[in-house]
Amino acid sequence: MKTVSDDLFRLVKSLTPLEKGYFKKFAARNTPGEKNNYIILFDAVDNMNSYDEELLCRKLKHVSFTKQLPVYKNYLYNLILKSLFSNSTYETIDLKINELIQNSSILIRKAMHKEALKYLKKAKAIAAKFEKSKSLLEILAMERSIIMSMPDKHTYDSRMKLYNEELLILKSLEKQLKLSWLSDDMVLHVEFKGDYRVKEKEIKKIMSDPVLKEYDKLKDFTSKKFILHIHLFEQFAKEEIKKVHYYLKKEIDLVQDYKFMIPSIIRTYIQTLINYLLFSNILKDRNNEAYALKKINELKRNIKSKIPLDMEIMLLSNICYAEIIISTNNCGMHKGRVTAKKIEELLSKYSSEIPLALRVVLLINTAKFWFIDRNFENALRMINCMINEVPPAFKQDLYDFSKLFQLLIHFELGNFILLENTVESTYRFLNNRKSLFDVETAIIEFLRKMLRAQENEYKEIYEELLLNLEKSADKIQSKITMGNFNFIMWAKSKIMNKPIIELMKAGN
Question: What's the Cα-to-Cα distance from 279 to each of 74, 238, 251, 292, 358, rounded to whole Å?
């Protein structure tokens, strides 16, 4: 049976009140004779809490277009997109350049070449300032067309000037594309595998490229940003936390040197500030933690009511991500509970709009918070979402950690009958993925013994677990796994018969 699409519903619900008001005016102007039908359909969809096509048909049973509902839904969807394009609440640099290019194109068709060149000159200045190389090439091609259609005694010099400009742009673009690939190559190795030992050769190969040594010679923001990003991810893969923190600050300083670029790089800048806040917290660097918070709040004030929904979701999600980690690290359980509930609301409301990588860290860190807060039911619910909703190949280290962490949650809940099968299936899963390292082995062996043990044997088994974890603590892969959760502190809390939060507060 064909699945009914809820695309129209999700688009309507993503609109702000201002966008909805503008759409109705736009529909009235652009759909003569049909305007009432589209507004009726729009209002009917907007009034629904969740999409139900049968309910929608019943609501519209007295309307003539109900039999053609799929056609009307499709047209309405595209009509909304057109209204958003014509009245963007967040006018990007690309939109400004495209508008100037389109105006110039219209004037060229009207043989108003001098007037067209004025628009191209404005477009060219903006494109050059914001390093929009592809747009610059398009603008230069249009200038060439005008020059060749209006030859005069300066035509040769003008054409040669354009040719040299094109060569410079292509040279710059070639370098940016190279750095773009090196950056993506590094991120893909680190993010998808998360194991420096396995990917060390590939990472070293990326870092040996001569183009990375040209940072101080470069004048464009884009190339510099790529180089810093590559260095940052190399240090992240090696777990050099202080160096990651250093390169994050370098990225922020670079943006401050090119402040005019912020509107066109808003997403990556938000992410950089959030990460700098998190790493400052991890390093207990309170001065830079305060600096990051100041920059985030400045950004929030400056872009309030000016950004589209996807950017707003990203900003809110990233702030929640930082808050849940900081609440956990600082043992701020009351604030953490508020943030954890806010995260669950975000994940529920914007399930498909939140990028998968961000969704993963929100789920895992919320699960860890609830575990430390001894709300194991909530912890299990969040970690089950992670395991059920995220492909196993995506962020393998975090997915594998989730499978291991799920065992601990079941153990704390006393789900021993379920654990008997789950422990063995998790062992096979990790073993098949070559992810069964010292920490994973220690946890699984611990659980196997606990499932067979008498109560008077528990303390000895906990002590054996602690010994095995401490023995493996300095190994590279153990650092990666225990970086996700402090298994040693958890083992100590069980031996001492104290909640883990007490040990965290005491700094044990």
Answer: 46, 15, 14, 10, 17
C-alpha angle 225/227/228, rounded to 5°?
A: 65
Backbone region of residue 497 per phi and psi (left: phi > 0; alpha: psi in -120 to 50; beta: other values):
left
In a domain, 282, yes or no: yes
Q: What's the CA gap between 193 and 396, in Å, rounded?
A: 6
Q: Is 355 helix (H, G, I), strand (E, B) or coil?
A: coil
CA 286/CA 278 separation, integer angstroms:
11
Identify whether 1 is part of a domain: no
Same domain for 365 and 312: yes
| DSSP single-letter state for residue 3 | P
Encoded tokens for 296: 């985030």
Say whether both 266 and 345 belong to one domain: no
Burial class (CB in 10 A: 0-12, 13-18, 19+), 497: exposed
Residues 70 and 110 in one domain: no
Q: How far apart are CA 395 and CA 191, in angstroms?
A: 6
Whether residues 363 and 278 share a domain: the answer is no
DSSP class per residue in 19-50: HHHHHHHHHHHH-TTTHHHHHHHHHHHHT-SS
Domain end, chosen from 37, 52, 86, is at: 86
Same domain flag for 258 and 357: no
- Measured between alpha carbons, how far is residue 451 from residues 376, 402, 491 in Å? 19, 21, 16
pLDDT: which is higher, 166 or 91: 166
Burial class (CB in 10 A: 0-12, 13-18, 19+), 159: middle
Q: Fill in the amino acid letter for 127.
A: A
DSSP string across 142-204? HHHHHHHHS--TTHHHHHHHHHHHHHHHHHHHHHHHHHHHHHHHHHHHHHHH--HHHHHHHHH
In this structure, the answer to whether residues 220 and 277 fall within a common structural domain is yes
Is residue 409 in a domain?
A: yes
**Is residue 13's pLDDT more than 90?**
no
Give dist(CA 457, CA 460) in Å, integer. 6
pLDDT at 90 over 70: no
The domain of 486 spans: 397-508
Residue 205: per-residue pLDDT: 92
- One domain for residues 201 and 282: yes
> How far from 499 is each of 372, 466, 506, CA to CA, in Å?
8, 16, 11
Q: How far apart are CA 10 and CA 7, in angstroms?
A: 5
- Please state the domain count of the chain: 5
Chain segment 249-284, per-residue pLDDT in tens = 999 999 999 998 887 888 889 889 999 998 998 898
DSSP state of 321: H
Query: Is position 423 within any domain?
Result: yes
Contact 331, 505 (CB under 8 A): yes
Same domain, 159 and 107: yes
